[in-house]
Amino acid sequence: MVTRALDLVLLGPPGAGKGTQAKRLAAAFDLLHISTGDMLREEAAKRSSLGQEANGYMNRGELVPDELVAKMLSKLLHSRTAALGCVYDGYPRTTAQEALLEDLLAELNRRVDVALYIGVRDAEILARITGRRSCPSCGAVYHLATQPPKVDGSCDACSATLVQREDDGEDVVRQRLKVYRKHTAPLLDLYRSRGILREVDGAADPDAVFGRLREAMGSVAK
User: Fold this and answer.
1) Is 182 a catalytic residue?
2) What contacts 154, CB < 8 A, 6 or more positions away?
3) Which CATH code fits 6-31+84-122+173-221?
4) Is the pTM of this model over 0.70?
5) Residue 47 bears catalytic tag
6) What residue segments make up the domains of the chain, in order of their start?
7) Catalytic: 133?
8) Residue in 46, 111, 121, 165 annotated catalytic
């Protein structure tokens, strides 16, 4: 168990399993799991002033400005739930976002202690994402190779016809990977230059990857 605030950035390409591992790390070290996507949706649902402003951008299909996301992050970081530290799930994604996060943490005399990168080859990412199928009725998610439905093409729970989400198609996934690497490479170089980047092979089952992440953290979490 950590005895001081621990701020951990978790990075990786789409489909690397960041969400699953972020939740496990947060639970293991009593940290707040921060997913900016979830944060934006929650603020919009609460109809807070920040949420309504963000919702305007999202409804127009535009990216929410970094400065607005930073305001929401600031509110979270100054809450009691973040006192022991946070796991930042897929954030920051650019060096500009990294600078904003460091400024917010500096207000609390904190910093990013370690950046964990889950590396997965493109072929594996494509297999993971393009094999996903979801139920448009109840929201259940399957995978053709690792978690297939009992009846091909039908949801086990409600028998609705399964569909592939538009952003899970191969062309879209390849473009997402291209964009991700373009923006993330400088960020990885930055964390590497600070000596806080730890790279972990994500081509394994979730339990094995979690073990590798904990091992990679080393003395930071002690």
Assistant:
1) no
2) 160, 161, 162
3) 3.40.50.300
4) yes
5) no
6) 6-31+84-122+173-221
7) no
8) 165
